[in-house]
Amino acid sequence: MNKIDTALTEMLGIRYPIIIAPMFLVSNAEMLKAAIRSGITGAVPALNYRTDKEFRAAIEGIKNEVSGPVGINLIANKSNVRLEEQLQSCLDLEIDYIITSLGSPQRIIEKCKQQGIKVFCDVVDAKYAKKVEELGADALIAVNKEAGGHAGPTPAAELIPELLDACNLPVISAGGVGTGAQFKEKLDLGACGISMGSPFIATHEAGVSEEYKQACVQYGAKDIVMTNKLSGTPCTVINTPYVQKIGTKQNFLESFLNSNKQMKKFAKMLTFYKGMKMLEKSAFSATYKTVWCAGPSIEYVNAVRSVDEVVTTLIKEYETAAVAVEK
To answer: Based on the domain organization, do 184 and 226 belong to the same domain?
Structure first.
């Protein structure tokens, strides 16, 4: 297939309307370069880099090796104390698009608009979608019930039409795509593209441990559970023996601190910090204390492959599904 034409491919100048979703600790420069070479695009969380110097060097390295759109995910709420520094670096590096999560994107949109940088905002309902549309967002990332990480409450079949009805922005579907047929379903619902994460964890380019990659092969949709112990916000993880041991609900003290008005802000920041450290240890080393973030689309992951192989298979399956409908 030469190209799939949508608002997303037009905005970013890519061949297929697919974004490798920004995944904490998983996404890296190698994945983004592979994405561009495969005719799609990828985004990486700015928080994946410990220092601004490392962040800038990684993005400059990508731009020196490949020609194509690079995306950055910025956490917009107060838990991200490095937001101003990260945003300035994105402006200096002339990033192609920003994906905002967890907080008001107002300042990010205002700054990016001045330089023509696209801003796509994570949303889970029409109410918030209308707010970011008013702020000047370029597109919506519709985070549905089957997304990995911080999933939304609504199935894609309901959320995409709801957002299209409420707003005049392009909608990119996030969650529930592991096959080309599911990719086609989201476009048929009116989405201009997809943001796809979990199937790319089990790729050669992903910088996580082989144990994490193999877990995505071995476990399936039934093994995905929701926990609020990592960031204070419900997050999907693989239900490993260690997750079963520690549970998925906050304990009494954690729950009390997060509900106390005076302590809530600090409790959330502490929970976020502790949770991210736990994920970091699990992602890069073999340990019995495994907390691996993933979504139900790992159901369709049968082997560790390259980014290009994942994309090629997805497009072939998409074509097959399209032909079947025509018949």
So the answer is: no
DSSP state of 305: B
Over residues 250-300, the pLDDT tens digits come to 444 344 334 544 444 444 444 444 444 544 444 434 343 577 889 999 999
**Which positions ≥6 away from 84 have C-beta within 8 Å?**
none
List phi, psi (to 5°) of 219: -90, 165
Structure tokens at 233: 């916000």
Q: Is residue 306 part of a domain?
A: no
User: Could you list the residue range(s) of the whole structural domain that residue 285 is in?
Assistant: 210-296
pTM of the model: 0.87
177 lies in the same domain as 143:
yes
DSSP single-letter state for residue 16: S
As to burial, measured by CB atoms within 10 angstroms (0-12 exposed, 13-18 middle, 19+ buried), residue 21 is buried
The one-letter amino acid at 210: E
What's the pLDDT at 303? Answer: 97
Low pLDDT (below 70) residues in the chain: 229-233, 246-289, 326-327
Question: What is the DSSP secondary structure assignment for residue 21, as one 8-state letter?
Answer: -
Query: Radius of gyration (Cα) for the chain, nearest Å?
Result: 19
* pLDDT at site 80: 87
Buried b vs exposed e over 190-219: b needs ≥16 C-beta within 10 Å?
Answer: ebbbbbbbbbbbbbebbebbeebbebbeeb
d(CA 90, CA 92): 6
What is the model's pLDDT at position 327? 59
Please tell me the distance from the alpha carbon of residue 146 to that of residue 262, in angstroms, as a whole number.
34
Q: Which amino acid is at 177?
A: V
Say if 250 falls within a structural domain: yes
Task: Give the chain's length.
Answer: 327
pLDDT of 316 reads 96
* pLDDT on residue 30: 97
